[in-house]
Automatic annotation (TrEMBL):
Native source species: Pirellula staleyi (strain ATCC 27377 / DSM 6068 / ICPB 4128)
Pathway(s): Amino-acid degradation; L-arginine degradation via ADI pathway; carbamoyl phosphate from L-arginine: step 1/2
EC number: 3.5.3.6
Keyword Zinc listed: no
UniProt protein name: arginine deiminase
SUPFAM superfamilies from the UniProt entry: Pentein
Keywords: Transferase
Amino acid sequence: MNESRPLFAPPRILMCSPEYFGIEYEINPWMSRSRQADRQLALLQWHGLADMLESLGVMIERLHPVAKLPDLVFTANAALIFKKKAVLSHFKHTERQREEPLFHDWLTQHGFEVLCLPEDHFFEGAGDALFVGDTLYAGYRIRSDVRSEQLIAAWLGCRVLAVELVDPYFYHLDTCFCPLSTDSAIFYPGAFDTYGIEVLQSSIPLLIPVREEEARAFACNAVVVGKHVITNTGAPQLQRDLRNAGFTPHETPLSEFVKAGGSAKCLTLRLDGENAAAWRESPAISQPVSP
Ligand SMILES: NC(=[NH2+])NCCC[C@H](N)C(=O)O
């Protein structure tokens, strides 16, 4: 990893294909067993996202899908990556706790030092903890515990700013907040309380608000690769705002994953450090070639 990586190493993202994806239980308000995902369409949409990322210069790493683990596709929830360390998730719901050993083994086998939280501390990885510059922004209450995030900040030696998530539809931080660079991010104000909004506004120089109907189409759940920002379809205003801020937005349909409460970002885990993370030492391409 970092030290040993060649110059211009490509961005690396972990994904897990949706062979066994479906709505088999209900652990967030988007999920209803009576509104099943179309698995063939999910496979097409997943490949659409993976192909788009590859065309932007990303190297996709794969986790093998496993039967009866329908949410394993949401690799953002595997862990929080910090240099060569991976803080393993410990899921709030038992349905997803069964994914933990698979994420643990994959990360260990791929050279990460895996850190595990105490049994009574919940934490859902990059779904709830995202760097902007040197600061770790951490969403808490619905899935992750604030005390997990305090412990992680102490382990990693970084500043953490914890923001409470107040709307059950925006139950992970990555559903309502996305760092774009070391000093910019997008966010949906309705998912935070007044104090959380103040924390974000006072600490991030460029904070772009996303309107409600676009946030409900998972516009904030974006994958950032250099200046490229990839989201689900249905966010024309955000696309304009991103262009004005110097980014290149891309849309790809992800309707089947929205039925499980996830979208582009949830389907990915950046392994070499997000572009917005100041700790990222890698000289990896920051402006990959356009498709
Ligand atoms: N990073 C994310 N927001 N992942 C979405 C996870 C969706 C999954 N059904 C859950 O409720 O846990």
